[in-house]
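Morning run. Coffee first, then this:
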Amino acid sequence: MNATRSLRAVVVASPQDARTSLSEALEALDGVEVVGDAADPKEAAILSARLHPDLVVVAMSPSDEEGAWALPPLLGVAPGARVILTLLEEWTERRAAKGYDLREIIEVLREARAADDRDGHSRRREATLSMLAHDILTPTTAVVGVADLLLRYWDRFEAEERRQGVANIAEVGRDLASLVRGVVRAAAADAGSLVGDREPVELAELLDEAVGGIRRIAPSHTVELEVGEPVPKLWVDRIRVQEAVLNFLTNAVKYSPEGTTVRVVAIPHEHEVTITVIDQGPGIDPKDHGKLFKKFSRLHPEDTSGHGLGLYLVKAIVEAHGGRVWVEGQVGAGSTFGMALPATGRTTGTGRRADRS
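And here it is:
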């Protein structure tokens, strides 16, 4: 496996000390990250539908009939994941000996994943259809798996487990809807029809609305807005430009620690206005800046919280208006995402700083 991508593992064992012991053994291996743990396979099935692990390690007793019935659905809920069964006593009674050696199995999985990355990852980046199929089929399989698990074994689940299973189905469904909307917009961008009718827009009002929306959903961050003087009007598709600004803001609060400040700065120039969103997050290596605005591009392949379309759409929106986008920053020094849009040449009002929140 390449050095930047770890195998994501879920650990399954009934006693807490066994889960701890197994997790420690896995994380001691190079290139393995334990992303979750569960007390039994049915709980692991619901967890895996949300986390999409590469590996599920199940520590079971030979007499554990209650856990064994949930193993087949677990295989369906975690498409592409490898499931390893190990004896529970190896992680409780004989923890010092660690009789069940995971190292060789992990090495085989690592080599298989590396082959997948070499042979398939680059092709998915170049073949939109293949990448799209992957992003749709994985959550779809998870939805079907969890739904089938609930239908077949409804009476064996506690009320809270049923609620969590249904909640996971709803969450994945929303994610799929978001993906489809993004793909439709990307297709519109490719066809040159993403941006609609344009109108004269007060920049300060547009940014006020965007910042106000982010403050409501991210109260843990301070968001500052500064618009330079004189405030220009822009001749733009208001909805699409606000969508682009919101994308920058959403990423800023998503990747910045709670309690930090996100600044939005708009500066008018002779023929354009620049809008920058400055965060106090971990920053991005300059060698990765060129990847950010490409379709289906993720800096971290294991990050399943997005589909790699947001910044691509920002670029498409801004360039359709005759503008440009960029990113600046270093690792450990935060990031600055910027866009420049042509101004109409008409101005109104004065520069202002919005209230901080």
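Confidence is low (pLDDT under 50) at residues 95-100, 120-130, 345-356. Good start to the day.
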